[in-house]
Specification:
alpha+beta; Alpha-Beta Plaits; four-stranded antiparallel beta sheet
């Protein structure tokens, strides 16, 4: 499964990381998510069918913004 790195704006603590990881793991086709508030990134393991819009919408649900899919 391909790994993507996305940049997320607004993470400031481990709680932020867990919130983003949890919501991304609920997206169909996502098998792994590892967020880093220090880097402002998320390493995402997802099928090719998972679109940038799906990722942006999921992250927005918990109050953060994807700045590059």
């Amino acid at each position: 499964m391909p790994t993507r790195v996305i940049k997320v704006k607004g993470m400031s603590c481990p709680h932020c990381e867990r919130a983003i990881e949890g919501v991304l793991l609920d997206v169909p086709g996502v098998s792994g998510a590892k967020a880093s508030h220090q880097d402002g990134t998320v390493q995402l393991e997802a099928e090719e069918s998972v679109t940038g819009d799906m990722i942006r919408e999921a992250v927005a649900e918990v109050g953060y913004e994807v700045v590059s899919p």
